[in-house]
Amino acid sequence: MKKILSLLLTISMFVSIVGCSGSPGGGGAGGTPSVQEEAPVTLKIGTTKAPEVLSIMYERDAFGRMNYTGICAAAFVDRGASGELQPNIMTSWVISEDNTSLVAEFATDRGILWHDGEALTMEDIMFTFEYDMEVRNLSYIHGLARIEKIDDTHARLYFDSPCAYNFLNAIAMTVFVLPKHIWEGIDNPDKYTGPEAAINCGPYRLASVDRDAQTMYYESVENYWKGDLAADIVSVRTYDSKDALIMALCNGEIDAMYDYSSPVDATKLSSITGVEDLNPGMSDNPGNYQIVFGFNEAPTSDLAFRKAVICALDYELLAVSIGGEEAQVPGAGIVAPPNLGFREDLPQLAQDVERAQQILDEAGYLDVDGDGYREMPDGSPMDVLVTPNSAQTTSIYPRLAEIVSQNLAAVGVKTTIDTEHLVSSDALREFIYSGTYEIYLGATTSGKAAHGTAFFYFVQEDNGTHWGTCTIPEVLETYRGLKTASDEAAYVETLERLQEQAMEYAIGAALCWDKCYFPYRTDRFEGWSNFPGWGVIHHDTWCSISVK
After folding, report:
1. Measuring CA to CA, which residue among 1, 439, 73, 38 is closest to residue 233?
2. Could you report the per-residue pLDDT of 169-212, keeping only the tens digit for each?
3. Quick one: which of 97, 140, 228, 366 has the most CB atoms within 10 Å?
4. Which residues make beta-bridge pairs with 278?
5. Per the CATH hierarchy, to which homologous superfamily does domain 2-205 belong?
């Protein structure tokens, strides 16, 4: 019977997705549709990401990014509003004294069904971790050596170093349990995009995609194990621009927005304030805009030059340009206030042009030819490349590049704003990952700030998955200590020390402590909870809201 049900559902999903069907009916058991007498309740969400690949394995499009919110895919571990770890499919855990293993309990006795009607079992748990290690080589679980089944609800995970706590921190909201009966035998998961690739065991199953309308439809799971679901259907519509998305919110076309790492800019705040039944959704931003120095190129490889740059910047102007009136000048520790380990006691950054000039003079960066710009200490010309993140992400970056260039010109440092690598996101990514940049203006996303910290983008670590070039031994040693921390207290202590070193060695700087704006409506639903950096669309949303 289960095999028949699974086959029928697979056929149904294939027809609806490929055929681009419209809005589906209500929810059903284990994600199977059932007829509802009353009109289904629909929660309408807007985004600017397009539904490109309908697979649990793909993270970069609308479907993939929505899964960070626990809508369709179920994470092993979730994260609370303050960054603390929360159980999910992994319901509890005990870390060994040496931090090299942990015993975990899983929700395999809660009657959870995959969206095709098959039951979630320990075989799925074992398969997921083994598949992520052996086939996917998933960076989030780096350090996991093997997993050993204890019984039908427990397993012991072994690590190749003292990194059990860091493992939990890394997998939170990012590593999803996988159905063995679907992915077993798929040797190239990145290329598998059949209708079954979207099946998981979250509160909603992907029912259909109307590609003409750029809208995904999700149906609720009956008797969801974590609580009642107010919405029978969740629709996620893609808009062409952030302006169009905001207009849809103001007009009541959608109830809320979700754009991972892309909240509404403070410059657009006026368009969402004073609108009836619209809450601006303001919260602290766990991520931050930042300046990252390239350690592989001169002059940014020179500590004196990096310190001079940090002294030269107008943080008041940078803050207001980024976050408007609500923004704050950042502290010297890079880590933003909402995150674990934030150092409130570190000094606030402040522009000091005279000090910047003094540092440059003493380090031998002098204007030897009298043209108003300094030369390198060996007398050769100096022209520092300032590379902003793509304007496709937000229009703020070109403005930040202008401010940084103007600030450096004021202390005699000639700069060129990089436009060559902004022709496409791929070109920019290739250049940044090459590690040959000098000054890069980027950002730490909300998700990365929580588990990888902002330092993920500064140091040369983590299997080459990012662009950090800092190889200062003291900094690297402390950063590695984050991975071997045995609990939250040890993690925070290590992160606090790392922030001091970031200031001492001038590896980069935050440019602003800003606010996030993920606006939402209050006329149809209540009980919203606003997560810092995520807005009201996160894993708690599905059970916290109710119809007004």
Report:
1. 38
2. 989 999 999 999 999 999 999 899 888 999 999 999 999 999 99
3. 140
4. 521
5. Dipeptide-binding Protein; Domain 1 (3.90.76.10)
